[in-house]
Amino acid sequence: MKKSVKLAIILLSLLVLSFIMSAIAVLNNTTKAADKIFEGIYINNEYVGGKTKEEAKALLEEKFNKKFDNKKIEMFHGDKTYSIDYKSLKAHYDIEKAVNDAFLYGKSGNIISKTIERYNLKKKS
After folding, report:
1. pTM summary value
2. Cα separation of 105 and 38, whole Å?
3. CA distance linking residue 105 with residue 39, whole number of Å
4. 36-68 in b/e burial notation, b at 16+ Cβ within 10 A?
C-alpha cells in the first residue's frame, strides 16, 4: 500500500476515534446533569446553568416576577387619571415554560442532535 493511503487511513481512524471519544464525554456529562440544567444556559441574561429546575425557578421568580408586584400603568385622558396595577392584569413572565425549555435543551432528540446542542453550549462558553 502507498504511504499516502496508509496516512489517510490513520488520519481517518484518528478522526473517527476522536468523534467517538467526544460523544462519550458528552453522554457522560449528560448523565451527570440528568437533574440539572446544562452549563452554559441563560434565560433572559440570567445564568441558570448547573441549577435544578426548582433553583432556576426561584431565581427567576425573584428576579422578574417580583418586579411586577408594585408596578402600575397610569393613563391620562383630559383631566382624568386612570390607574391599574400589573397584578390585576396578571402580568408575569412564563418562568415555568422557560425553565422547562432550558432543562430539556441537550436532553431531548436523538444522540446526534443532543451531541450537537451540547457541543454548541461548550463552544459558546
Report:
1. 0.60
2. 8
3. 11
4. bbbbbbebeeeebbebebeebbebbeeebbeee
DSSP state of 85: E
* Closest C-alpha among 95, 112, 115 to residue 103: 95
Q: How many CA atoms lie within 13 A of 40 on its CB side?
A: 14
Which of 56, 24, 22, 21 lies closest to 38, judged by CA? 56
Give the pLDDT score at 66.
72
Q: How many angstroms separate the Cα of 27 from the Cα of each of 2, 33, 98, 107?
A: 38, 10, 24, 10
User: What grid cell was written down for 84?
Assistant: 391599574
Cα 91–Cα 62–Cα 55 angle in degrees, nearest 5: 120
Tens place of pLDDT per residue across the chain (125 aa): 677 888 888 888 888 888 877 766 666 555 556 789 988 899 999 999 999 999 999 999 888 877 766 788 899 999 999 998 887 887 778 899 999 999 998 887 788 887 788 878 777 65
d(CA 111, CA 23): 9
